[in-house]
Amino acid sequence: MFKIVSIPGDGIGPEVVASAIRVIDALAEKHGLEFSIEEHLFGGASYDAHGEMLTDETLDACKNCDAVLLGAVGGPKWENLSHDKKPEAALLKLRKELGLFANLRPAKVYDALVDASSLKPEILSGTDFMVIRELTGGIYFGQPRGYDETRGWNTMVYERYEVERIARLAFDAAMKRKKRLVSIDKANVLECSQFWRNIVHEVHGDYPEVELLDMYVDNAAMQIVRDPKQFDVIVTKNLFGDILSDISGMITGSLGMLPSASIGTSHALYEPIHGSAPDIAGRNKANPIATVASVAMMFEHTFCMKNIADEIYAAIEKTLAGGLRTADIANPEDRAVSTTEITDAIVSNLKAS
Ligand code: IPM
Ligand code: MN
Question: Is any ligand 1 atom within 6 A of the Cβ of residue 317?
Fold first, then answer.
């Protein structure tokens, strides 16, 4: 029995999580697996109910399950709250409390969607890399931090163990792929980055089969749009990873397609990369594929069932190849299908496989 905590959250979160749960139910039936899925409040929905974005109850539930499935959090309604009350602060607290130090964001182009990107098809086609972002350290969490009337300040700091463990995870990921790792930093300017680089090279000693390349973050931003196929696995610090994973996601054609996994030593959280899209919330228009693909990552990383993860990806690909498109990925001349319709198709493709 696997225990999943689902956090639909705000905006389109509840709709895309509902789709993902239908996929989990279908897989449970098909493979004779048992899941318990317990729903909890987080973000704006929790604030409205309890005056807090992240209650102890939700946090405890997340600590006592095998995997968390998150939809999306935030929206205009909660944007003007003070810094420490915002949904962003709650998300950072959740990551930190669960020890989710590694964030995996695949940038993979679906053949059926090559034309949806702002890059030329010949540059993009075949792109398939993984951005591994350090998630619980660096400038996001460094002390001291603050601002007053005359200055604002943050601190970028990495401890040796933090760099070692993310580097190790990235080398392990590279070993399972094409054995090419690019570590991205700003070692020409930041001491903290030189430290990062030194440690990544130390860890490389244990992975002689992996080809390691260092790249400055500004050059990396350029290389990702110039020739994305050159990358296999990227490992980088929290802030750089935040930025580069958006660029990497965007070039694939739709953020609505990309999943993510945040993993630590004893907990894991899976969520689509896109936000809560309040403008289309509640209208059965959202693209559930990123959340469904996040379930695939859950099967691979938490349940260690790579074969089922592959089944999910295949069902998504088959659905797209059949021509079904939600509004975010539809051509202007095509009729866009609803969240429910595309979910129906994914589920029936799964059952048929
Ligand atoms: C992300 C988001 C978050 C981040 C925000 C919402 C705190 O942009 O998951 O990439 O900066 O990490
Ligand atoms: Mn981001």
Answer: no
Distance 271 CA to ligand 1 centre (A): 12
Residues with a catalytic annotation lie at 140, 186, 218, 242, 246
Same domain, 177 and 81: no
Which residue's alpha carbon is at the smallest distance from atom 4 of ligand 1? 242
**166 and 303 together in one domain:** no
User: Tens digits of per-residue pLDDT, 20-73?
Assistant: 999 999 999 999 999 999 999 999 999 999 999 999 999 999 999 999 999 999
pTM: 0.95
Question: Which residue, 236, 258, 280, sits at the end of a domain?
Answer: 258
Full residue range of the structural domain in which residue 319 is found: 1-100+264-353
CATH number for position 313:
3.40.718.10
- In SS3 terms, the chain reads as CEEEEEEEECCCHHHHHHHHHHHHHHHHHHHCCCEEEEECCCCHHHHHHHCCCCCHHHHHHHHCCCEEEEEECCCHHHCCCCHHHCHHHHHHHHHHHHCCCEEEEEEECCHHHHHHCCCCHHHHCCCEEEEEEECCCHHHCCCCCEECCCCEECCCCCCHHHHHHHHHHHHHHHHCCCCEEEEEECCCCCHHHHHHHHHHHHHHCCCCCCEEEEEEHHHHHHHHHHCHHHCCEEEECHHHHHHHHHHHHHHCCCHHHCEEEEECCCCEEEEECCCCCHHHCCCCCCCCHHHHHHHHHHHHHCCCCHHHHHHHHHHHHHHHHCCCCCHHHCCCCCCCCCHHHHHHHHHHHHHHC
Cα(344) to centroid of ligand 1, in Å? 30
Q: Which residues of the chain have pLDDT under 70?
A: none
Q: Whose C-alpha lies nearest to ligand 1, atom 11?
A: 242
The preferred substitution site among 86, 92, 276 for testing ligand 1, maximizing ligand atoms within 8 Å of CB, is 92
**88 CB under 6 A from ligand 1?**
yes
